[in-house]
Amino acid sequence: MKTDILTLDGGKNGSVDLDDEIFGLEPRADILHRVVRWQRNKAQQGTHSVKTRSETSYSTKKIYRQKGTGGARHGDRNAPIFRKGGVYKGPTPRSHGHDLPKKVRKLGLRHALSAKAREGNLIVLEAAQLSEAKTKSLSAKVRELGWKRALVIDGAELDDNFARAARNIEGLDILPSMGANVYDILKRDTLVITRAGIEALEARLK
Description:
Order of helices and strands: EEHHHEHEHEHEH
Oligomer: single chain
């Protein structure tokens, strides 16, 4: 699949042949769903916690005698039935992550890239480089190119000037090729990959 290579000035600089095994698949929603769910669950902190009846600060003394009061039988005020008592089977700190085979993770990334290519929202950029870190000039170029909610994937290393200039532009994110992931790709409208990023992704996903 041939695609034109654009420059930051909006011009064309040749074309590149994209690998059909990575950018030409029929996207499968079930694969994408599994990978996104794995990503989001792994990112969840899991620090939620409640106090059980052994951790609340009431006395452990029996509140009144067992028989003869006409009321229900109770032990101490820490019981879950009382206000400010312990919580029964409440959440405790834990990991929400689960395993997902590496093959499925790789396949999910291929399907995410293919989905953007099929929608026509994949742009190949010659290089994400600037001579100086000027947010104003980069913002003007992004506006001219029509990128509103875009993710830029570069090669193994980011250009420092470009990364610093993009930091304050709303809706523009940049990642190195090793940071490319399904969730970030799908949640942006436009996917921009540099020539170096294409080579790195093809080497990573083959």
